Amino acid sequence: MTNPGFDTVRVGDLLPELVLAPVDRTTLALFGGASGDHNPIHIDTDFARRAGMPDVFAHGMLGMAWLGRLLTKWVPQARLRRFDVRFQGITHLGNTIACRGRVAEKFEANGERRVRLEIHTVNQFGIQKIVGEAVVAL
């Protein structure tokens, strides 16, 4: 955790990038078990193929969890005030995901000094998979 301060952070600053290991079946199975999301599209190849997909693929919420890791490596979880995302693409097996963030705005609300962050994930080809925003108190 880098523990940034409101006075030292500037609009445009980048969060330290979080790059994850390539998505594999074990990761999907473990996330399904931990989250209770046992949708067969994420763990059963035959089911995924019958649904028109080439193979299983990552849960959208797994990508959001990775973005949560990006945020909590930057500030303690208790400072998180808002965290919203939009799913933009499927994360396939073998994709290496990078989580990135940028300080978009500094402001005060409810007596706290806060920053709004633009966050997103991309695969190894630079294709965005998730985009979103977070607000953290500094």
UniProtKB/TrEMBL annotation:
Gene3D superfamilies cross-referenced by the UniProt entry: Hotdog Thioesterase (3.10.129.10)
Cleaved signal peptide residues: none
Regions that span the bilayer: none
MaoC-like domain sequence ranges: 22-111
SUPFAM superfamilies, A to Z: Thioesterase/thiol ester dehydrase-isomerase
Pfam families cross-referenced by the UniProt entry: MaoC_dehydratas (PF01575)
Database matches in InterPro entries: HotDog_dom_sf (IPR029069), MaoC-like_dom (IPR002539)
Record-given protein name: MaoC family dehydratase
